[in-house]
Amino acid sequence: MSTIYQYMRHPRHAELRAGRPVTTRDLRNLNHPNPIVRFNARVGLKVTLIVGTMWCAYLFSVIALIALPSAIKQGIFFVVVWISSSFLQLVLLPIIIVGQNIQAATADKRAEDTYKDAEAVLRESEEIQNHLLAQDTAIAEIIDRLERFMGQPAPPSP
Fold it and tell me: Does an H or E element contain 29, and which?
């Protein structure tokens, strides 16, 4: 008897089996073939790792507060300039980087979980395919037995 269904594996299957989820770390260009790109990536990463800490935010707060008395003496305009230029920019920069690092780590974890979920679905679908193949074999055997029992071939299926 001919097979009822011809299974065609999806091309993404091989990619999923061969790889792992892409993380933020993978996209940092530290292995780029161009040495200038590698250098820039390393310098940028080092600066980001240093500036993107709460300790750096505390240090920048102290540095900004040192200039506050001078701004107060010069009037309200200079206090506003101090707040917008010195304090907010100096202090918010490292805090924003800390938040982005947390968000990147969360996105990496989410990507890894999604990858694991996709892998689990793939394994389950393979089991379903195996089950269906076993059923096809059983159905073919039943049809063969019926044909032998009845002494005549079964009509072709549409």
Answer: none
Mean pLDDT of the region 83-94: 87
Cα 96 from Cα 101, distance rounded (Å): 9
pTM: 0.59
Is the per-residue pLDDT at 23 higher than 70? no
Is 94 in contact with 51 (CB distance < 8 Å)?
A: yes
What single DSSP character describes residue 86? I
Structure tokens at 103: 């968000």
User: Would the pLDDT of 21 be above 80?
Assistant: no
How far lies 10's CA from each of 26, 59, 94, in Å? 25, 54, 45
**Helical ranges in the chain per DSSP H:** 12-18, 35-51, 54-74, 76-81, 89-150
Report angle CA 123, 125, 127 to the nearest 5 degrees. 70
Maximum Cα interatomic distance, the chain, rounded to a whole number of Å: 110
Give the SS3 label for residue 82. helix
Extract the tokens encoding 131: 């089950």
